[in-house]
Amino acid sequence: MDVRAWFPKIPMIALALLLVSGCSGTKVTAKASSQLNKYQVHTIALIPFETMATPQAGEAAGPSFAVPSGVLRSDMVVGVPPTTDHYASQTHLVPAFAGEKITDLMWVNLRARSGLQLISPRQSARVAREISGGSAVEMVSTHKIAQRLRADAALSGKVLVYQERVGGRLGADPPAAVGFEVKLVASDGMVLWEGNYYERQRPMTEDLWGFIQRYGMFVTAEELAAYGAAELADAFPFGGAAGGAK
User: Fold this and answer.
1) What is the C-alpha radius of gyration for the chain, rounded to an integer number of angstroms?
2) Could you tell me which residues come within 8 angstroms of residue 129 by beta carbon, excluding any fewer than 6 positions away?
3) ∠147-116-30 over CA atoms, to 5°?
C-alpha cells in the first residue's frame, strides 16, 4: 500500500476528528410516548408558554450552566446539568417577554408543517381563563383546554433560561443562553411527546460545529431561541415538513 496516497486526505481526517471532539453535545432532545402510534393528531391548541419566575444562576467557571433547583419545578426536566453552588456567581431573572417570544417562534414553525391545524395562543388563553373561573390560569389542566376547543391535543411549554449575551458578534462574556421545554398532551390527558432545548453558546474550541452554524459569531438569545424552536418543530411527531406529508 502506498502511504503517500494518504497524505492529501490527512487534513480532511483531522477536520473530521476536530468536528467530533469540538461538539458540545445534544442541544435538543425529545421523547415520545409508547402509545403515540395510537393517536391521530391534526388539530393542536397552542397554549402560551410560561416564563419561569425563579432566578437562574450564571456560571462563573467551567462548562456547566448552573441552575437553582427551584427552576426545575416542572415535571419535564430541561437538559441542564444539576445545580452546583460553587459555580454560581450571580442570578438573573428570566425576562417576562421570553414566554411570549418563544410561543410566537413555535407558532410560526409548527404552522409551516403540513397536515396540522393550530389554534392560536390567544384562543387557548381565553379558554383557560374561562375554565379557571378566576383561579391561576397555569393551574388549568392542558387536556381540558384541548377538550374545550375540540382539539386533538394541546402543546404547552416553559422557558427556564433566557440570558442575553454581554458583548457583540465578535466576542461575548457571558454569551447568550436559552433553555425551554415543550409538552404535547392529548385531549384524554395522555402525554404524547416531550422535548427540550438548552444551549449556552460556546467558543469555537468547545463547539466547532455550532460555531460554524452561526457563521463564527456570537448570537443573541433570540437567535438561539429561534434555532431551538425550529429544531423542536422538526422533531415534532405529527404533521410533515412544509410542502410534504408525514
Assistant:
1) 20
2) 137
3) 85
Distances in whole angstroms, Cα of residue 214 to Cα of each of 169, 205, 209, 231, 244: 10, 14, 9, 15, 27
Residue extents of the structural domains in the chain: 33-160+181-198+228-235
d(CA 88, CA 100): 27
Q: Mean pLDDT in each 10-residue stretch from start to end of the chain (246 residues)?
A: 44 38 63 95 96 61 34 36 38 85 97 96 93 70 95 96 86 87 96 94 74 78 94 94 56
Record the cell numbers describing residue 207, joined without a space. 463547539
* Domain at 33-160+181-198+228-235, CATH class: alpha beta
Other CB atoms within a 10 A radius of the CB of residue 193 amount to: 23
Q: Which helix (H) or strand (E) holds 14?
A: helix 10-21
Write out the three cell numbers for 93. 431573572
d(CA 160, CA 97): 12
- CA-to-CA dists, residue 162 to 7, 19, 20, 102, 222, angstroms: 46, 27, 27, 10, 9
Write down the pLDDT at residue 63.
Answer: 30
In 3D space, the residue among 156, 151, 177 whose CA is nearest the CA of residue 166 turns out to be 177
Tell me what pLDDT residue 223 has.
93
Name the pTM for this structure.
Answer: 0.73
Q: Which three cell numbers stand for residue 142?
A: 392542558
